[in-house]
Every structure is written in structure tokens, then in C-alpha cells.
Write a structure and sequence with these properties.
With 176 residues, this protein is of the alpha+beta class. The chain has helices at residues 16-31, 86-99, 129-154, 160-169; strands spanning 3-5, 36-39, 44-50, 55-65, 68-80, 104-107, 113-122. Helix 2 (86-99) packs across helix 4 (160-169) and helix 3 crosses helix 4 (160-169). The protein is elongated, with a radius of gyration of 18 Å.
């Protein structure tokens, strides 16, 4: 089951919509027996999930903009791109992103952190459990599917063109 850290609020009430989105996400995670760490005051949930190729650290950031609830979900890769390969990795990420419809690859050029971002915006009063499940599944599936070619590019075993060609040759569509 999940665990939540609740730091002192200094008497300040958090935004009700953020609390609502936070409560809805943690309710989904609890009902599905996910282990996580949450901080309601920071509107942040952290957890780890295993993919086919490796485990991913998941970061959920909850925000509001008027009536819209936003969940930003990041699947963070367990390794970072080496400094000398970051420009090539950035090219590969641009090629992937051009073809993706629901997720976005990101890289921090300063430290080489690699992650996949999925954004859920809704003005619905209640975010459905199937929608949350699809968000988590789709993000992990994309991160996991691209892990081997991304790491091949990051560590100099393949060029961006070669990595995409290898995916297509193995019947892995780059469209998502």
C-alpha cells in the first residue's frame, strides 16, 4: 500500500482542486496495491514500476489552472546520457517526438537525465480509474519500448537513423 508524508502546512490550506486530484490519484494507486511515497502539500507522488527492460522511477506532479486538473507523469530512466553523447541523443529524441502522439521524451542537457512525459488535463470533477491506469500503462510502455534504442544511441552503439531503422525492422512501430 502507499505511504504519504505530510509535512507541516504552517496553517496554509492547499488548493482544493489540487487536493482533489492528489486524493484521486492516491486512491487509484491504493486500490491497485501500488507502493508509492506521496506529499500532498507538494502535490507530488513518487513510485517505481518495472518494465520489460528495466525499472522506472515515476514522478507525478499535480497542478491546477482554474478548473482544469493537470497530472504530469514522468518515467525517469535509471541512467543518464554521457556529456559527449547528449547532442546525438537530443537528435534521436527529436526524431522520436516528431512521431509520437501521446508522450514526449525529454533530456536535461546539464546532467543527461532522460525521461518520458505524459500530461493529463481534465476539467472533469472525477478522474476515472481506467483513465489513470491507461496513463500509467501508456507512459511505461513507451519508455520501455524505446529504452534499448535510446541507450544504444546514448552509449555510441547506434546512430539515431540506425536505431529507428532497427526498431522498424523488428516490427516496432514508432507511432504511438
Amino acid at each position: 500500500m502507499g505511504s504519504q508524508n505530510k509535512p507541516a502546512t504552517n496553517g496554509l490550506a492547499a488548493n482544493d482542486e489540487q487536493e482533489s486530484a492528489y486524493a484521486q490519484l492516491t486512491d487509484y494507486l491504493d486500490r491497485n496495491d501500488y507502493s508509492y511515497t506521496g506529499d500532498e502539500d507538494q502535490s507530488l507522488v513518487l513510485m517505481k514500476l518495472m518494465g520489460t527492460h528495466n525499472s522506472f522511477q515515476l514522478h507525478f506532479h499535480l497542478a491546477t489552472n482554474g478548473p482544469v486538473k493537470r497530472i504530469l507523469m514522468y518515467s525517469v530512466y535509471p541512467i543518464k546520457a554521457p556529456p559527449e553523447r547528449r547532442a546525438t541523443v537530443a537528435e534521436f529524441i527529436l526524431r522520436i517526438n516528431y512521431q509520437l502522439a501521446t508522450a514526449v521524451f525529454e533530456m536535461d542537457m546539464k546532467d543527461g537525465e532522460l525521461r518520458v512525459k505524459y500530461v493529463l488535463n481534465t476539467d472533469a470533477e472525477r478522474i476515472s480509474h481506467p483513465l489513470m491506469g491507461a496513463m500509467i500503462y501508456n507512459n511505461i510502455e513507451v519508455a520501455d519500448r524505446y529504452m534499448p534504442p535510446l541507450f544504444a544511441v546514448a552509449f555510441g552503439y547506434a546512430s539515431p537513423d540506425t536505431a529507428l531503422e532497427m526498431m522498424e525492422a523488428h516490427g516496432q512501430s514508432v507511432l504511438q
